[in-house]
Task: structure prediction
Amino acid sequence: MQKFILSVSGVMVLVLMIATIFYHQKSTAITQPRPPQFGQISENSMIQKEQEPEMLHPINNEKVTYSLQNNELNISFDQGANWQVVPVKMDQLFGGEYQGNKQELITDSYLLTENVVAFLYVDGAEWENESVRMIYSKDQGATWKESVIADPFSHVRFRIIDFVNDRFGYAILSGDRTMSQEFSQVYVTNDGGEHWGPTTNSEITRLIAGGGFVDEETGFLSYGTINPEAPDLYVTQDGGKSWHEAMMYIPEKYKRIFVIAETPIKEGDHLAVLVNQGPNGDYAGGLVKGKFISTDHGATWEFAMEVQPDEME
Result:
């Protein structure tokens, strides 16, 4: 009988030990969270990364510069130390037929100075209803204004915005391109950008290559981007009321070599313009340009010299 009682007691002790171990394991499994799997760690990290805005870096080393990071336009007046967002949608900055690479703003579609910053943008959901507008600030981004330059203006390709002084500015636009023809128009403002109006049209339908004003009266339009054989430069000397073809006297040696006029500039007591070789130029490596001089406000131009690539600003 004593042996029987001892056997039963031993079995009971063994059962209690097994039950205690099982209960402890179950309790641990409930109270201790499972460590995340590798895939969960990566997914959580990616979500956190997407939520954190990317640190802004200036697009260049200029004092007044910009950034397109985080899908917004930011400007800085101190080389990237401080930033201000520009209240314009990114897709509006790249609207129209030509949209650039979207890694940087379209060349000449903006103006960045310490006194004024301005950006052209396209407004309108459909091409048929598009307009070209300008958003600008004259107090380093503290306040912003918007103005309508052209409404309607569809399929914009070429665009330039600039100011000659604090009052007079110009915008040059082209659009509705079909093969090698397009519509182009110059717009000017005389009140610092609040109101814009078109100048007389030049009636030229070749693709525009460049243009600009050197003062309130004298402006230029350069045409021909597809297989040009000679510069096609037009000038106004009355603020855009009329346009006429400028005469460029090209030495025989350089005919069909220097074929696209760039935008003329003031240089001392005369005007100067560089004429490049176009997309297919191969003279002296294709990068040499011809420099021409005008002493009659851009009506006629005489060849001055060749300009090497390392001599260009």
Remarks:
- The first helix runs from residue 2 to 31.
- The radius of gyration is 34 Å.
